[in-house]
Amino acid sequence: MTEKRLELPQGTLDLLILKAVALEPLHGWAISERLQQISRDAIQVQQGSLYPALHRLERRGWIKAKWAISENNRRAKYYELTSQGRKQLEAETAAWRKLTDAVDHILDLA
Amino acid sequence: MLSDLIYRLRAFFRRQSVEDELQEELQYHLEREAEKYRKAGATPEEAMRRARLAIGGPEQARQQCREARGTRLLDDLLQDLRYGLRTLGKSPGFTVVTILTLALGIGACTAIFSIVNAVLIRSLPYGDVERLVYLFTPNPHFANVPVEAFGPSYADFFDLQRQSHPFASMTAFEPTSFRSASENTAIRVAGARVDGNFFSTLQSFPEAGRAIGPEDDRPGHSNVVVISHALWQSMFAGSAQILTKPLRLDGGLYQIIGVMPSEFGYPHGTDFPVGDGVANRTDVWVPLALSPQQRAAREWGNGYAIARLKPGVSVRHAQAEMSTLMIRLDLLHQADTRGWGAFVKPFRDSAVGSVRTLMWLLLGAVSLVLCIACGNAANLLLARAAARTHELGVRAALGAAKGRMIRQMLTESLLLGLAGGLVGIVLAYVFLRGLLRLNPGDIPRLNEASIDAQVLCFTLLIAVLTSVLFGILPAFFAARINLVEFLKTGGNRGSVGTGNRLRSSLVIGEIGLVVILLAGAGLLLRSYVNVEAVQTGFSSSTVSMNIRLDDQYASRDQRLAFYRSLLDKIQSVPGTESAGVISALPLSGSESLGSFWVDGYANQKDQLVNGRTITPQYFFAMGIPIVKGRSFTGEDAEGHPLVVIINHAFAEKYFGNRDPVGLGMRTPGPHDPLKTVIGVVGNVHHTSLEAAAPPEVYEPLWQTDIGQGAFVAIRSLLPPENIATSVRAALRTIDPNLAFAGIETMGDLISQATAHRRFQTTLLTIFAGTAMLLGMVGIYGLLAYSVKQRTAEIGVRIALGASRGRVLGMILRQGLQLTVVGLLLGLAGALALTRVLVSSLYGVSAVDPITFAAVPALLLIVTIAACLIPARRAANVDPMRTLRDE
């Protein structure tokens, strides 16, 4: 199980979090679950990196947090994308695509 | 950016609730994770265990979140501040000594900077000073007359104004003084006659009313006056109806049209190297209103001209253009003195140029004092760091990061530095008041120095800077603690040896700086003593005063009659021994040069000499000795043979070996009638005490003439105040409209002439003294600490039979070694640096052997005194007690 897990390159987690909260506001646990599900368990985010990343993104004004009642009737902190965050997501997605295309291209040629 | 700041601030100030939220969030996460495993079939305990494993250490996550919040620096700072305050409070003696040392340095620096700020930095009350220039028309025919005496003639001025392109505007003005009536006594006010462009060229505007404009600058429309803020306050008590009031000046009635703001007092005496009695600040401005004849006067200028350069025009360009114009204008001058040229001088150079060196010198000296204070503070901190080895070692052993410990130490030094800065500001107020009392009067705007926002910013800056400077070494030293060593010795000793070497080097450096300052002060002191010892050539108890006749005394006969009756009246005042009138009094800043011709001498074209017109009793009144021949008498008047008296310097230069008495000379030119030299008098220091006495020629007033202004010299048995009262009374009986100004003894004038040097010397001596005191505190502190550290060793030495004398010598030797090394370094530095003082020295060389011998001697004596206390303490160590302690 551990060998299937991927090391995330620097800064990628921020992009993934932004993408995860782009559809609807999510709380921390749900974000990590969603990332895990979508990546088919390839990516598993540790609490130790998830929450600092959330705080960092909030500080930059790309996501904002609010407390709400969760699906199991508990108080939970939900994060949602700000308009600034949406722009950032678009920009980073484009940059990521460009990078991976370029890397693919080089790998294919070689 | 803003959201970032708000986020950080909230995280910082509402730290507890942010932490709680995080706790809740992490808890929620854990529970959901556990719930997931429960749903998959695990028991609640098993689910919780697996959830904990899966999500990792919660404390680690919390710490990383804190860092992500970006408040860690702030959090640490707060912690460091609290810790620093606590540790400083625990050793009040150390804290107080350090703060006082720093306060002394910072306070002195602040006070000097407030002066530099007022004199050099603060903007002058004129618009864009960089574009203002003086225009002069120097003439090489009069080579020994300073260039600043050559304001353009009015004809030249108006031609320049018409034809020159580099200037946006030009103004001409004449400094003068007026007699005005205040209550029942006549007073003299400093004034200037200015043309209609004066205020607009300077771009200085009145605070009330309007300035003098071109419409006022016409004969017949010129009875208007602009007054200074100071005069408004003193003469009119700040009256709100000031613009409706008239002002009587020299018998004319002027309408007040404007009041200038308090910072404006141009022209100042300090603006011109050839003072010619221009007052320190100008209080009234009236229109120049030249007549057509005056406007056409081509030969000599009476005043000054200022121009404002057009934007983008350089001084060099203006100089080139004015030179070209003057070549043409020169041809319109009289043929025999042609050669009128052009000189464009930046306004700022005149306004601040002459004192710039002094200001930098003072600032440099005071920063050396600050460096020494820093050295002491660093040494105290180092000693404390060594004493705190235990505490620091424990912290390091508990895992404190090196950077964190350095930051902690720097926070402490910052606290000390800021406290030193605060106390320093208080000291600076005191210092500045003392400094202003020393005001020599020739430094422009010195009395406007104050501790304003700009100065406070400077203080804050140097407080922070010095904190880092004196804190960085101890901080690194503290962080370099050798942990292994520390733990091995049971936490009792750290690496102390390196610290001692560092401290010794600091003390050596301090002593070096002290030597430089002492040498500088010594050279200035020696110069000052030399200047004070200069034989002025006249008696310092003679009372002198200045008088200026008004337009009623238009003819020579009227003037001569006035002076005759004035002298008669003064002679009849009881106590008067002798009284004389002279056209230009020594050290009064007035000067008159004339050409002459000596029969039987290889006369040069355009040779000039200081010429004076005097009445017969002048030499007796001034106590100037007659070396040969006789003085003038009442007989040497019109209708009698023309006579002159020369001074010793003149006789030597122009008559050489010949006995001048009975020989002849002519003034001004070779074709004028022969005048017989009837006497030779002693040399007099006329313009300054420091320049050699120039050749002088005296002519009897009764055979020549005198201008509107003159000086009266009186030798009397009465004290000066009584003389003043009785001569004022005498003057009133002759003409109640006239007033004396500047009633002073010649001793006062000598004192004014040396005031600048006194100011410079006093300050540098005080700095050197302070530096020496700080240096001694430094060396004392080092030795006292070292003795304390070596108590055990010294105890063993004594127990093994070392005599107390030997121990005393050992400690003294340690102190003297440092001093000698510092001394040698300092002497080398002083030899290199005192060169900047050369222009301020008089009668001593920059490598004066007496100074360079006296400084080491003084320093050694003081060092021995400073070392004696710790040395004696060492000698008195009780071996039994120290051995028991071991």
Write a compact overview of the structure shown.
The complex is a heterodimer of chains A (110) and B (886). Chain A is α+β, with helices and mostly antiparallel strands and 110 residues long.
Essential attributes:
heterodimer; A: 110 residues; alpha+beta; Arc Repressor Mutant, subunit A; B: 886 residues; 5 domains; 8-stranded mixed β-sheet
Describe the structure in your own words:
The complex is a heterodimer of chains A (110) and B (886). Chain A has 110 residues and is of the alpha+beta class. Chain A has one domain (2-109): Arc Repressor Mutant, subunit A, CATH 1.10.10.10. Chain A has 4 helices and 3 strands, in the order αβααββα. Chain A has a 3-stranded antiparallel beta sheet. In chain A, a hairpin with a 5-residue loop joins β2 and β3 (75-81). The termini of chain A are far apart. The model of chain A has no long low-confidence stretch (mean pLDDT 84). By secondary structure, chain B is α+β, with helices and mostly antiparallel strands. Chain B is 53% helix and 14% strand. In chain B, β6 (246-249) and β7 form a beta hairpin. Mean pLDDT of chain B is 85; it is low at 493-497.
